[in-house]
């Protein structure tokens, strides 16, 4: 069976320009990795200020982890789950949350391969027999859609378990995992979502970080798929896949404002396609960086902040390929900032960008194209 799963953010990455550009520093998405893996070496940050900031961030996360006797106690200090009209249950901020803050660190209840040769329902049900009663209860408290009409949920627990898994599972490396705490997060499109989740292969765990500042009482929302599409497309996809009509802040915009949002999202998607052509040498490095800046500006206008770590890392790839050390360093600095928000300052991607800031010539693409001053993030 091919399981149906939400996309893990290692993630919602940009269109991998490594059909030209992408260093593939995001983790694996639902279907495939964004590109080749990296051997990551942890170097000191390039600037004292940066070192202080990120060391403080790591220390703060470590402090948050150690101050609590249980996962439940830590969760309760950050968020709580409550009923939300029209949505079932949702996750609400118990306090103000800072960008980049670690919200959830969760091991999977279990992971299954994406394709299996045995009964899907039997496999899921057998996995559930091996988890403790508390975890099992958490699993069966999750919502589900698309249960076959002939199935009686009171009588066929295995089929219900399969429906729950298909509705809530996300990519976990080469497999598909179930994470009951993370699965409580509802969906938001474009600028509406404020947290992102990532699978960490080496740790065998899923992490959720705040993409932007979140105020106490605000709902924590992630996104179930790449949403750089018009509203009608997004709603149709979510309706068919997850059984709900999206009423997030972006989908609820008045018609004229929604039209403007759709135009920006489509333009961003088109620009990503244009950026990818650098890999086929159809555009030069200066134009590629100009496209990155246009994507960034449209993202600011739309409020779409996701994937910026990957985008800046791709820009650093272009700059390094053209032996532009200053631009490589500056784009790596931007990538480090956004990777720290999206993936965590302790992520491999953040560590790799720190290395590039220290010595741009260590970038694997260094000098693979003609020498060219491509442009820095500040427009210089």
From TrEMBL:
Claim: NADP is one of the keywords in the record: no
Transmembrane spans: 37-56
SUPFAM superfamilies (UniProt xref): SET domain
Residues in SET domain copies: 74-225
SMART domains, per the entry: SET
Database matches in PROSITE patterns: SET (PS50280)
The name this protein goes by in its record: SET domain-containing protein
